Amino acid sequence: MNTVERLAQSDENANGVDGVSLQLVQKLTARGETFAAAESLTAGLLCATVASVPGASAVLRGGVVTYATDTKALLADVPKDVLATYGPVSELTARYMALGAANRAVADWGISLTGVAGPAMQDGHPVGEVWCGLKPPGALYLDGVTAVRLPVNGEGTRAEIRRQAVVLALELLMQKLDSE
Fold first, then answer.
1. Residue 53 carries which DSSP code?
2. Which of 13, 95, 153, 168 is least buried, going by the fewest C-beta atoms within 10 A?
3. How far apart are the C-alpha atoms of 170 and 153, rounded to whole Å?
4. What distance separates the 2 farthest-apart alpha carbons in the chain?
């Protein structure tokens, strides 16, 4: 039994290791797959959450924080014309971010988060609007990459919104893994 399996069966999981992160590490490890992330509103929280699980280094290739709009082009390969036309908070931007993260880190899966954590609207987007992009294995171009608007409650604090976004994104990735 490896460290991740032991942790899943022990009381240590109650001491701060997020359950969905643990499940994700277990599932990706069993499949021999990796992932990378591009994060905007969560500013690295998704990667930090997964990295808290022992054994995460087997599946987490890395991540980029693309908090400022221009860094989405610089670090996640979002075309500048997409950012100019659709903005940093959009389905298309999230799709490009996921693809860019996976390609740059040479990962099987790519995941991205972009949205508004508040406290005020941003460029017409309400607090709590969050897009999650997912790039599955084998998707070499944008065609195979999807994005969904996550059901984040915009009534929470910035910290609560960011945490909700991470948990929902990890759950979405788990659902995708379970459906394959």
1. S
2. 153
3. 16
4. 51
- 18: how many CB neighbours lie within 10 A of its CB? 17
3-state secondary structure (DSSP) of residue 25: helix
Amino acid at 152: V
Per-residue pLDDT of the chain (180 residues; tens, 9 = 90+): 444 344 344 444 333 347 999 999 999 999 999 999 999 999 999 999 999 999 999 999 999 999 999 999 999 999 999 999 999 999 999 999 999 999 999 999 999 999 999 999 999 999 999 999 999 999 999 999 999 999 999 999 999 999 999 999 999 999 999 998
Which residue segments constitute the domains of the chain, with CATH numbers given?
A: 19-179 (3.90.950.20)
Q: What are phi and psi of 61, to 5 degrees?
A: -80, -35
